[in-house]
Amino acid sequence: MSSEFLWYIPNQIEPGHRGDSAGTDHRSLEALTSHATALEQHGWKGALIGTSWGRPDTFTVATALAARTKTFEPLIAIRPGYWRPAHFASSAATLDELTGGRIRINIVSGQDNLAAYGDSEGDQAHRYGRTKEFMRLVRRLWTEENVSFAGTHFSVEGSTVLPRLTPRGDRLHPKLYFGGASEAAERVAATEADVQLFWGEPLDGVAGRIARLKALSRDLDRDLAPLQFGLRITTLVRDTTEEAWADAEAKVDEMAKKQGTVDEHRRAPAAGQQRLLDLHARGEVLDDNLYTAPGRYGGGGAGTTWLVGSAADVASSLRKYRDLGVTHFVLSDTPYLPEIRRQGDQLLPLLRDDAADADSRLRHPEAVA
Question: What is d(CA 360, CA 319) in angstroms, rounded to the nearest whole number?
Answer without folding.
Answer: 11
